[in-house]
Write a structure and sequence with these properties.
Distance between the termini: 25 Å
CATH topology: Metallo-beta-lactamase, Chain A
Number of helices: 7
Bound molecules: zinc ion
Radius of gyration: 19 Å
Number of domains: 1
CATH superfamily: Ribonuclease Z/Hydroxyacylglutathione hydrolase-like
Helix content: 10-25%
């Protein structure tokens, strides 16, 4: 197996230990943001009874890497994400969807656990020509209306009239695709199908397990890696502009359900190989099922996640997962780690 460069690992470690002090609500120059994330995590779910809430725990400030080159990553990567996401604390007040502007061209959406226990995350990546939406939620939410509102805000900030939209799914499981129908037939919108053949033909992938496609949103190139194992049509997205690896249900702080173990191991290794030598600021999946207590997850189906683990994982977690599944030597095993649980089906 190929090892990661010491420089890359050193960078990730140094960022993981970065000073987290200081007020991160400094994004007054962000577009049309409303600060509703002050105070305790409970406040985040009770301060707004509208359908969506927008927060601004973000910083565009880069940091010096250990190589002396400018880093893509915020100086305090963990502070670039909300201290707590909506987590089913009070369903009378919690919005159906939380909108988090990571930066002025990058948005994370979290579906309320009150609407579906899966509480999936969705991502919007804006380029000059197109905005990519990854995943549409588990159903029961007006995802298209929220996406439209985010796009309107972005267009206004940029002084633009319109932008093309592409809707793609991390994989075909129901809790990630339920809102696709809200986008079908809408203007300026392409909705990528959810089968292997449909994803392959859209991105021009010839060999599903081996190829890596690139998709240009306009000054923002997204790499598309097939990573079957959790589900056959699963893809990872790598956004080199932000150092983001979007891993869907293949790696997140929770129960990593593995349908095809051998294929999964190959896919994890492919991701490790792919990011070798690249800067990775964040490994972001589509659920959180771990608590802040190492190795302890929420009960399956729980609609309230007090003390929820953050969404953000680092490259070291991908390496930890790779090492663990490779060490199983072809025999799938349930294995609890601090930040995720390997869960062969
Ligand atoms: Zn899934």
């Amino acid at each position: 197996m190929r090892a990661l460069t010491p420089i890359t690992l050193a960078l990730v470690v140094s960022l993981g230990c970065a000073d987290s002090s200081g007020d991160t609500d400094e994004a007054g120059d962000e577009i049309g943001v409303t600060d509703t994330e002050e105070g305790s995590s409970e406040d985040t779910t009770s301060s707004d009874s509208s359908d969506t809430v927008t927060d601004t725990d973000t910083s565009d400030t880069g940091t010096e890497s250990t190589t002396g080159m400018e880093s893509l990553c915020p100086a305090d990567i963990e502070a670039a994400f909300p201290e707590a996401w909506i987590h089913g604390a009070d369903c009378a007040f919690e919005p159906d969807i939380q909108v988090h502007w990571y930066d002025s061209d990058t948005v994370i959406l979290r579906q309320s656990l009150c609407t579906n226990f899966e509480g999936p995350f969705m991502f919007m990546l804006f380029g000059e020509d197109e905005v990519l939406l990854e995943d549409t939620g588990a159903g029961g939410i007006a995802i298209a209306a929220t996406v439209d509102a985010v796009i309107e805000e972005w267009l206004e900030a940029k002084g633009r009239a319109s932008i093309e939209r592409v809707v793609v799914n991390s994989h075909a499981h129901g809790d990630h695709v339920q809102g696709n129908g809200q986008f079908v037939g809408q203007p300026n919108t392409a909705v990528v199908g959810t089968s292997v053949s449909e994803v392959s033909s859209f991105f021009g992938i010839q060999n599903w397990r081996d190829d890596i496609a690139s998709y240009d949103l306009g000054g923002r190139v997204i790499d598309v890696l097939p990573i079957p194992g959790h589900q056959n049509a699963h893809i990872a997205l790598f956004d080199a502009s932000r150092g983001w690896l979007l891993t869907g249900d293949t790696l997140y702080p929770g129960r990593l359900y593995i349908a095809d173990f051998g294929t999964y191991v190959t896919s994890i290794q492919r991701m490790v190989d792919f990011v070798d030598g690249k800067e990775v600021c964040a490994v972001l999946g589509t659920h959180v099922e771990m608590t802040t207590t190492p190795g302890v997850d929420f009960e399956f189906g729980s609609t309230h996640h007090p003390n929820e683990h953050g969404l953000w994982l680092g490259l070291e977690h991908l390496v930890e997962l790779r090492d663990a599944v490779v060490a199983m030597n072809g025999t799938p095993a349930y294995e609890v780690h601090d930040d995720f649980i390997i869960y062969p089906l």
